Amino acid sequence: MNLKTYLRSALTVAALAAIPAAAIAQMKIIAVQAKVGGTNYGVAPNAEQIPVNVGDRVRVDLVGTSIEGGRGVERQVNARFDVASGRGMIDIAQAGSNWVVVNIRSAGDAQLGYAVNGNYDMRGNLRNGRITLQISDNRRRGGQDRGQEGDRGGYGDRGGHGGNERWDRAQEVTRRLYLGILGVEPR
Fold first, then answer.
1. What is the pLDDT of residues 144-185, one digit of tens each?
2. Would 118 disulfide with which of 25, 78, 93, 112, CB 3.0-4.6 Å?
3. DSSP structure string for 47-68
4. Cis-peptide, bond into residue 45, ω within 30° of zero
5. Are 125 and 45 in contact (CB under 8 A)?
6. Closest-CA residue to 115 (of 130, 101, 103, 105)
7. Between vectors from CA 169 to CA 166 and to CA 175, what angle results, nearest 5°?
């Protein structure tokens, strides 16, 4: 092997060794968000509550804002997740590298904790945090304003719900009973 071939081989090996170092450079993340149903909610540094309902099964993706070419770009952020507060209100059904599927069990405020995994260039306060879920119980009509319509448990009087399916079915059953038993339409 002559000197020229040896130098060329050495330079090629050195160049190939430098490529992986450049390829795994840290991605700079300046903010972290939780993505639920296509909507981003601030997690750090701006914390926003994510509105969900009892009985929902929601997927929460952890994403970060990276500055590339002078503009903000959304990138996946790998993390581990756990139930930080509200055990029994929420539980984790599935988890991936940057997402978690959560079952919503009961109303109130609950929090998912996250710890970032991976080689990211980010401030320390972004590496660990909590994602707050604001859980409402909208399974029953009347939810929070239950009991405001007298003593009927939030169902009101005739026409009080303007086309409520339950009320309409009750009226139809009453009409059929009147016709079947008395042979007349109800008044």
1. 444 443 343 444 444 444 456 777 777 777 877 777 787 777
2. 78
3. --PEEEETT-EEEEEEEEEEEE
4. yes
5. yes
6. 130
7. 145
